[in-house]
Amino acid sequence: MAARMTKRADGRYQYAIRYTDPVTGEKRRQYFTGKTQAEVRAKVKAAQERLDAGAPVRDSSRTLAEWSTQWRATSLEASDRRPTSKATCVSLLTNHVETETIGTVRLDRLGLADVERLIVDLRAKTTKRGARQLSESSISRVLQVLKVALDDAVAHGLIVKNPVSALKRKPKADGEEQRFLSLAEVAQLIRAAEGTRYHRPLQFIAATGLRKGELIGLRWSDFDLESDTPRFTVNRTISRLNGSLNVGPVKTGAGHRTLDLSAGLVGVLKAQRKAQVAERLRAGSAWTEGDYVFTTETGQPMDPRNVLRAVTTAGKKAGVADVDVHALRHSAATAMLDLGENLKTVSVMLGHSNIATTAKIYAHVSDHTARSAMASLSAAMGI
């Protein structure tokens, strides 16, 4: 890097350096000015440190929204993330970053204060009814995706530091108290679903704590109902993506799990299989054979949205307000812990990646000695 200090006609000092751009490989010249030689030398030193680190002399002048748009179309799309995860990243960035004030900030001017302002803005967002739109967990997810996008900006040589990494006190992602029902409320909700095709699916979620997509993705080949220890394996999940159902792997490695079945749940499944045989006969050639356990009248997997509607409808009928599928999952975990199951057992059943996640979510429940989790919960619920 060649350099030369000069004094301009206006009395300010100027330092010109020639260097090879670490990103493009092109030969470039950059000028630094200041009132004193010391000020200019400090700027040149900072530039040299950036070059030594393989970064550009100055950060990119494009806006955060422009970079986010490019990142979504390139780095994110090329990654090995699941389609549903990609869709979530796109939604979080387009709705809560690119359209916010921070989206208009140039990368070379983006700092910690801008990230902190984003947190304030997101906390202030409300629904049409005036309720808070985003929970702390949701804001945390926005920041997680933004951090990944800016980490890639660093890797591409557009900026030297990621301001999200400088946050000392981040929104709390886990540990928020979860909505859960008492065993009596769960029983009321399940009774309210009797006579509908969602009665047995809701029984299964309530007694196992499966995620909605995991339940819908179950196939008969995942079950062993005839052995001395009936069990099933969670192998896949189904979600709605871009207007259609998407079959994919479970959420995490821990999500792929094998669980024992209680005698009550074996009975529920046998009743489901009997009902499905009758439906197949009625549907005739319209039946779609996919080996799925919980299906529509023509054999296709249930739509996740319809399962959610079924829970909401049953909740209203039972007089249980503001309930969704997650509430049933959380209720199952809470009941298992209250019935004496240890935290590790419940963590495995829920498919959490580590026991710390379970501990944070269910900190309000005491940890007891383990018993047979599925059997005790099913018996308590009369399933």
From TrEMBL:
The lineage of its organism: Bacteria, Bacillati, Actinomycetota, Actinomycetes, Propionibacteriales. It comes from the Bacteria. InterPro entries: CB, DNA_brk_join_enz, Integrase-like_cat_sf, Integrase_catalytic, Integrase_recombinase_N, Tyrosine_recombinase_XerCD. PROSITE patterns: CB, TYR_RECOMBINASE. This is Site-specific integrase. Keywords: DNA recombination, DNA-binding. Residues 62-154 form the Core-binding (CB) domain. Belongs to the 'phage' integrase family. It holds the Pfam family Phage_integrase. One of its GO terms (biological process) is DNA recombination. SUPFAM superfamilies: DNA breaking-rejoining enzymes. Residues 176-375 form the Tyr recombinase domain. One of its GO terms (molecular function) is DNA binding. Gene3D superfamilies: 1.10.150.130, Intergrase catalytic core.
